[in-house]
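Researcher: Next entry in the queue.
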Amino acid sequence: MEDTDEQVIHIDFPALRSVAISAYQEIDTWIIPATGWVFLGIYNFKVDVTFSMGVTSKGFLHPVFHHTSVDFGDTYFYFEDGFTEFLVWQVLEFSKIMIENSIFFLGSIVFTDMLEAIIDKYSHGY
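Model: Structure for this entry, 126 residues:
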């Protein structure tokens, strides 16, 4: 991080060490009928944000996000049917990349505008 006169808050938050979901799933479609055990594991999920807190002209807190990123870490997926596993894995990986990139490029803009209303509500207009 570079030295500036602006005071910022930097949070490097290891949100989840590990999450594992295991279930017996039945897919009843005409394209890919499949039945079997499914496993999804997400390990070392991290959230990284850098922001500063300002004040609006009315005196409400106003967060300004400078950097946001999400890292899904290591993700594993298993399904007994190899073809279904391949298709679902591709959808999961593509979704993961879309979420990570969207938050990296648009997170600062979205969170800066959205969090002000949430902070106002839960701090009772402080």
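Model: The mean pLDDT is 83.
Researcher: Noted, moving on.
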